Amino acid sequence: SPRRALPPTTKQWYQRRVHGECSYNIAMAKYLLIPKNAAGDFDVPGGWSRVGLQEMNNPEIQAAMGSLFTGPGVVDAFNKGDLVMVREGESQSQEEWRVVKVSNKGDPFDVPDGWEIIEMDETNFGEYMPKVGHLITPDMAPGMEGGTIKFIKKM
């Protein structure tokens, strides 16, 4: 019987998608997992947006996770924040948000001109979750609680 080619790994798939070398049909793919780049950031392709943690109970997202999470290594990488899920389509939000980090609590945050830190705690986090949930990875909880991770909003 003829051997079928296996689909590429998520990283190969993403690299081919970004670099235009795709020999695998991804036209129907609405969701991808993407790895961090060498700088530790996520290069979300144009026309795609990150899926927020607040959306993980959505049945469509869960179905996509079932397809993309191909083994324990992928699940571990996602849970450590080394992979994020993205969807085809731009973000619906008109606001621009980013994450800033420092090594130690009390260190000054590097906030670019035109941006402001939005203070969040348990009393107002629910209000901001729909706006910043797409930026949160599971490994960020200690930094958010410990004051070494903040969210900034473009003014």
What does this structure look like?
It contains five helices and six strands, in the order H-E-E-H-H-E-E-E-H-H-E. The strands form two sheets. It has a three-stranded antiparallel sheet. The protein has a three-stranded antiparallel sheet with strand order 4-6-5. With 155 residues, it is an alpha+beta fold.
What's the topology here?
Layout lengths: L9 H10 L11 E5 L12 E3 L8 H10 L3 H8 L3 E6 L8 E5 L13 E4 L6 H8 L8 H6 L2 E6 L1
Antiparallel strand pairs: 1-3, 2-3, 4-6, 5-6
Q: Main beta sheet, described?
A: 3 strands, antiparallel
Q: Quick check: average pLDDT? A: 81
Helix segment count?
5
What is the rounded distance between the termini?
Answer: 61 Å
- H/E series, N to C? HEEHHEEEHHE
Structural class: alpha+beta
What is the global morphology?
A: globular
| Uncertain spans | 15-28
Radius of gyration: 17 Å
Number of strands: 6
The largest beta-sheet arranges its strands as 1-3-2
Strand content is 15-25%
Q: Portion of residues in helices?
A: 25-40%
